[in-house]
Amino acid sequence: MAKKFRNFINGKWVDAESGETFENRNPANWSELIGTFPKSGKEDVEHAVEAAVKQRDVWANLPVPERGQILGRAGDIMVERKEELAKLMTKEMGKVLKETKGDVQEGVDTAYYAFGEARRLYGITSPSELPNKTAYTITKPIGTAGIITPWNFPMAIPSWKIFPALLMGNTVVFKPASDTPATATKFVEILTEAGVPKGVVNLVHGPGRVVGEAILEHPDIGVISFTGSSAVGRRIAEVAGKHLKRVSLELGGKNPQIVMHDADTNIAIEGVLWGAFGTTGQRCTATSRLIIHKDIYDEFMDILVKRTKELKVGDGLLKSSDVGPVINESQLKIVLNYVEIGKQEGAKLLIGGNQLTGGKYNNGFFMEPTIFTEVEPGMRIEQEEIFGPVLSVIKVSSFDEAIEVANDVEYGLSSSIYTNNIIYAMKAIDKLEDGITYINAPTIGAECHLPFGGFKNTGNGHREGGKWPYEVFGEIKTVYIDYSGRLQKAQIDIEITK
After folding, report:
1. How big, in percent rounded to 5, are the helix, strand and coil portions of the chain?
2. Alpha helix locations (H) across 252-349?
3. Cα gap 194→171, rounded to integer Å
4. Is 250 considered catalytic here?
5. Which of 89, 254, 290, 324 could form a disulfide with 94 if both were Cys (CB 3.0 to 4.6 A apart)?
6. CA quadruple 212, 217, 221, 222: dihedral positive or negative?
């Protein structure tokens, strides 16, 4: 019998008010039922917010280093359970085990960063323009944070958001993706075991159009952090804007890897294989466009096709697998539809393009790693985020053309250039319109202590990672202390002259 999971509200595991549930299954083996989860509604969000609001003062009044100690313990527990967590994650969303271990490790790293940041939440002190007066800043929590996360990094991305929110003294209402609810449940269990008090973190499962909307609309949630598609991000910004909520959006990407004629071909091949087909292409930073200089194009593509054919697609729990399944049937259909769009647009399907069926593939959503050549700038497969193992290849004649093609999309998350020419490298850093640029490395591989996010339709200017999300979850207060013993009027009593 499948395990029954519940929401976590005010320190208790509870069913949805409606009693309705949904199933969570393994995309590599759809007959394997991981568990059933509460299909929550607006009333469940209401209960979660009520609990979170009630505990605001309890949590905010705990000294910041003490909050940091709790988050550090959460990191310790994640280290101890890394193998267990990674296997569950692979069963839920499919990526191979070495990648889900990396997902857990990113959560560990973020926990330890928060532990250290607990003693570094510095304000500033400033001279006053008046005598016998001093000024400084402190940071206060916003109140309650609504956290809405995707399925592709079900441990790392919640940790990016929830650890900073908690360290800043906020309580949390957490809605994970419905494709990875079990990992989210384990994450909340770990936080509770580490010592987070009841009501401080509340977990509500269910569909985004119901649970997510209720979080957006609730007047007692003051900040929203969301990772997902740009279309949903626009909706969140629209709804939250009506209530003047603070919003952090980390959205889509259409990331280019440029390979110049002077590049180390072997390293560049490794980079594009990992960037395009790691996580089955289901990363917002995935390499979905390969921009190659014409002088090395033929040689490079011969090697790339050979190496792509060698990739083994299969269950992510098997050590032999390089590429796991697509997350679900709906996403597989979207990816296959983009393959047809590419053909209709006149691109050449060089390799792949098909769903894998029969034998070990019969009960999962597996797809061949796919490469299109003769792709022209402006084609939909070159412009739109596909979120699957599909690579579009564009041939260019110069560095300037490569930069122009790379920038000519609505997104600006991540980019990569392979070159041994320092001038190309430095100009690329300057000219590429994105939040992350890699030199001689793939478009994936962000580290937890550095900012993560992008330009244009990739987000709304905020960043995950490092110290930057702490700015999202805190309010800055300026303090003036006048010890002159009399009324002093700023800008009036003292006029600074040249």
Report:
1. 40, 25, 35
2. 265-277, 297-310, 329-345
3. 16
4. yes
5. 324
6. positive
Q: How far apart are CA 61 and CA 69, in angstroms?
A: 15
Cβ neighbour number for residue 416 with a 10 Å cutoff: 31
Annotation says 284 is catalytic: yes
Q: Any idea what DSSP says for residue 323?
A: B
Cα–Cα distances (Å) from 323 to 105, 243, 244, 318, 361, in that order, read 20, 43, 42, 10, 13
pTM of the model: 0.96
Residues of the chain with pLDDT under 50: none
Torsion of CA 202, 206, 207, 210, to 10 degrees: -60
- CA 315, 316, 321, 325 dihedral sign is positive
The pLDDT tens digits for 422-433 are 999 999 999 999
**Structural tokens at position 106:** 């990113």
Query: 203 Cβ partners below 8 Å, 6+ apart?
Result: 7, 8, 9, 48, 174, 176, 184, 185, 188
Paired tokens of 341? 């769009």
Structural domains of the chain, ranges and CATH numbers in brackets = 3-251+459-478 (3.40.605.10), 255-439 (3.40.309.10)
Residue 2: predicted pLDDT: 77
CB 465 within 8 A of CB 448: yes
pLDDT, residue 323, reads: 98
Catalytic residue among 92, 106, 284, 448: 284
Could you say which of 250, 368, 382, 385 is catalytic? 250
DSSP characters over 269-280: HHHHHHHHHGGG
